[in-house]
Write a structure and sequence with these properties.
The structure holds two protein chains of two kinds. By secondary structure, chain A is mostly helical. Chain A has one domain: Cytochrome-c3 Hydrogenase, chain B. In chain A, 50% of the residues lie in helices and 12% in strands. In chain A, α5 packs antiparallel against α12. Chain A is globular and about 70 Å long. The model of chain A has no long low-confidence stretch (mean pLDDT 88). By secondary structure, chain B is an all-alpha fold. Chain B folds into two domains: 46 residues, no CATH class; 256 residues, no CATH class. Chain B is built from twelve helices and no strands. In chain B, α2 crosses α11, α4 runs antiparallel to α6 and α7 packs parallel to α12. The termini of chain B are far apart. The chains are: A mainly alpha, B mainly alpha. At the A-B interface, β1, α5, α6, α8 and α15 of A face α12 of B.
């Protein structure tokens, strides 16, 4: 298999007469992106071609879901994107609810929104640290994780878990929040808001950071749309693609928030989009906390959830990385006949080759970091 | 009793004879210098151990962590533990290496940087050897590290180490030019290359050279950080890049020598910066009445400079190789040359002589 792969790589780009050599980045490397293997064909320092080799983290989640009941599948969805697990939980729950025509109660919807936005902040904080680490600034990683700890404390308070929550269930959420959750959440938001300014001070206009990320990895809107780009990465190219705005789910149409767009399409724009999104998330959570009212957190459902025979549902949602879609096919049994996860990282990864041709080796890390890729999402 | 005093008389006679007829005075001179150098070696090694601890603590506190605090009080013995670990590590050598260069490279890296300490004045006249070409000597010595790095990269029989070696050598060679050029205005003003004399000149001048030559100071710090392969110029040893750098194939004591060599390079560069720009062993302004020996002032300033260089590492992202070279050749060198021209013009017009 490796021979086939290497021969395909060597045969693709014609040699210019100087020595080209093929170098392997990963699957284990100190850069923080997990088990992604990149085969890079280099001419000196210049990249000729980048071929990602996937599958090192493939766990057959989609196939496994075919042998699990719908509620059992939720635990697997956590592992699809373990950095941003609530959003995947939500996507699957929404798809299953659409399939079985279940409506979650309002309190559950507000709680789902709060936790998804908190999860978005947590995911962006981890991205911030990883991106800075790839560029070479080793300190912001710890700052990001320090704030993330507080969010994880909030999660642990609610559902007992810090990474894989299994919290957002079909028909609602697992359990109601503790009485002091709202006050603790508000306290966190008050603490966190000025921190975003701190991080922007440190990184955003740093000349070295600007040199590394401005003009690097430019994605034009046409290329982005054609290649299935989505999420903050595409918004960095000026394309309005936020699923929360286009096809609002939960109560996003009742909340006021801005879609963060930047025009340049380079790594710096994508960075700016995510930093601005952090502020938007804070505002969204504040609005949701105000609208939270007492009520049940789970809908009345039959004890065994069965999908109607020959039914299908596809739901798009906005995860921290981009568009997360779940496609479910039901066949009258308690187990899905087919579950498919459309993950943003898998589609976003495609552009890596195009964007890095002709650039230097260090730019792979900058571009990869700016895409906010998560390998479990790529491989499932 | 008689026998005893006879023996002593005889010993005295022999020594006197040795002194006169065999030129033992020359040997004692030699022994003098050897003792000083060994003391310098030992002292610097201890200082470097302290610096490694300091780096870990400084980086930890900058990153909202604590750093080593278990091994010894405040974690001070951490470096000792690391040194012992490195010493007892298995010496893994690539099979197809070039044996002699592979062995020599870390030694050259280590020794070359140590040699720079010979001309640093720790107090008035407290120099191992106050060469009257002190600055030139230091600049020449730092070029040895290039040889060591290239040799290490080549002899490792590893394409990535070779590339890392090339990058590193290119970086060091490019940043030597602004390093030297930033020292030239100071040399023009003082008319001497001896570090002790430069410090004395700052005493008569009444202010440290950092005040009139602030640009040269900034260029010097930047170039010195690049010379030591430290962030933000640490592409050759960047951990998030695939290429492990020229010291990939070295383990144990050999790696420790490269590592220590890097720290000593920082100490030497900082010491030169302190002596040339920050007044060396002169007291801080307005504090000259304090009964503190010059050595203490020197060490304080040295630690300040080293802290600054450490803070750089943990604050800034890394420059890409071509950006690094661009910055050195297209930005630092023109500014340094401009600085020389302006200083020269000012010296001419205000009549301090050539």
């Amino acid at each position: 298999m490796t021979d086939l792969l290497l021969s395909r790589i060597k045969g693709d780009v014609s040699s210019s007469g100087t020595d080209e050599y093929v170098v392997n980045l990963g699957p284990q490397h100190p850069a923080t992106h997990g088990v992604l293997r990149l085969i890079v064909k280099l001419d000196g320092e210049t990249i000729k071609q980048t071929t990602p080799v996937l599958g090192y983290l493939h766990r057959s989640i989609e196939k496994i879901c075919e042998n699990r009941t719908y509620p059992q599948c939720i635990t697997y969805t956590d592992r699809v994107d373990y950095v941003s697990a609530m959003t995947v939980n939500l996507a699957f729950a929404l798809a299953a609810e659409k399939l079985m025509s279940i409506q979650a109660p309002p309190r559950a919807q507000w709680l789902r929104m709060i936790f998804c936005e908190l999860q978005r902040i947590a995911s962006h904080l981890l991205w911030f640290g990883a991106f800075a680490g790839d560029i070479g600034a080793l300190t912001p990683f710890l700052y990001g994780l320090r704030e993330r700890e507080r969010i994880l404390d909030l999660f642990e308070m609610t559902c007992g878990q810090r990474l894989t929550y299994n919290y957002i269930r079909i028909g609602g959420v697992m359990i109601d929040v503790l009485p002091d959750f709202v006050q603790k959440c508000r306290a966190f938001l008050d603490y966190f808001d000025p921190k975003i300014d701190e991080y922007e001070d440190l990184m955003t206009y740093n000349p070295i950071f600007l040199e590394r990320s401005r003009g690097v990895g430019v994605v034009t809107p046409e290329v982005g749309i054609n290649c299935g780009f989505s999420g903050p990465s595409l918004r960095g190219s000026g394309v309005s693609c936020d699923v929360r705005k286009q096809q609002p789910y939960l109560y996003y149409d009742q909340i006021k928030f801005n879609e963060c767009l930047e025009m340049a399409g380079d790594c710096w724009s994508r960075y700016r989009v995510r930093m601005r999104e952090l502020r938007e998330c804070v505002s969204i959570i504040r609005q949701c906390l105000e609208r939270l009212e007492p009520g049940p957190v789970e809908a009345k459902m039959p004890p065994i959830l069965k999908a109607p025979p020959a039914s299908e549902a596809y739901v798009r949602s906005e995860s921290a990385r981009g568009e997360m879609g779940v496609y479910l096919v039901g066949d009258g049994t308690p187990k899905p006949w087919k579950a498919k996860f459309r993950c943003a990282s898998f589609s976003n990864l495609y552009l890596l080759d195009q964007l890095t041709r002709g650039w230097k080796l260090a730019d792979i890390m900058a571009v990869l970091g700016s895409f906010d890729l998560i390998v479990p999402e790529v491989d499932r | 009793m008689n026998l005893f005093s006879n023996l002593i008389a005889k010993a005295g006679e022999t020594l006197h004879w040795l002194y006169i007829y065999l030129g033992v005075a020359r040997i004692t001179d030699l022994l003098d210098n050897v003792v000083v150098v060994v003391a310098m070696f030992g002292g610097t090694s201890l200082f470097v151990m302290f610096l490694v601890w300091m780096e870990r603590k400084v980086s930890a506190h900058m990153q909202s962590r604590i750093g080593p605090n278990r091994v010894g009080p405040l974690g001070l013995l951490q470096t000792l533990a690391d040194a012992i670990k490195l010493t007892i590590k298995e010496d893994i050598k690539p099979v197809n290496r070039d044996k002699i260069p592979y062995f020599i490279a870390p030694i050259v890296a280590f020794v070359a940087t140590f040699m720079g300490l010979v001309v640093i004045p720790f107090d008035n006249g407290v120099v191992v050897q106050d060469l009257n070409v002190g600055l030139l000597y230091i600049v020449a010595i730092t070029s040895f590290t290039v040889i060591a790095i290239l040799t290490a990269g080549w002899s490792s029989n590893n394409r990535f180490a070779l590339l890392g070696g090339f990058r590193s050598a290119a970086q060091i060679v490019s940043y030597e030019v602004p390093l030297v050029l930033s020292l030239v205005p100071v040399i023009m003003t003082t008319g001497t290359l001896s570090l002790n004399s430069i410090v004395l000149f700052q005493k008569t001048l009444g202010m440290w050279f950092v005040v009139p030559q602030i640009i040269a100071f900034l260029i010097f710090i930047t170039s010195a950080t690049a010379e030591a392969n430290r962030a933000p110029f640490d592409i050759p040893e960047a951990e998030s890049e695939l290429i492990g750098g020229f010291h990939t194939e070295y383990s144990g004591v050999k790696f420790a020598m490269f590592f220590l060599g890097e720290y000593i390079a920082i100490v030497v560069s900082s010491a030169v910066a302190v002596s040339v720009f920050l007044g060396g062993w002169l007291p801080f302004p307005y504090l000259s009445a304090w009964p503190v020996p010059g050595f203490v002032w020197f060490m304080l300033k040295l630690l300040l400079m080293i802290f600054l260089i450490m803070a750089f590492r943990w604050t800034f992202p890394r420059l890409r190789v071509d950006q690094l070279m661009d910055f050195g050749w297209k930005v630092l060198i023109p500014i340094a040359i401009l600085n020389i021209l302006i200083t020269g013009a000012l010296l001419l017009f205000f009549g301090k002589g050539a």
